[in-house]
Amino acid sequence: MSGNLQAIAKTVANLAAPDLKPKELIAAVRKQHPDASKKEISRGAFLAMIQAADGDPDRARRVQEMALASRGDHDDDHNGKASSSSVPKRKKKAHH
Fold it and tell me: pTM of the full predicted structure?
């Protein structure tokens, strides 16, 4: 397991708070790990959740919420914006 992933997991666990929304937690983690991708933060959050599950179920639930919120699109540009390749293109309906 990567040391960077462990560091991100520790940061997520330390920052997880009841009043912190998942996007706010991601932003706070990025302040301490500016080069971390959304995918790395998501993986770190799941690791933090696993590590916290036995000792602090409430913290594990908060971390899980963030992890689930961040897992959707991992092709981001470190600014929280999805790249154009991750945006599905719509097909035009044929007019009959």
Answer: 0.59
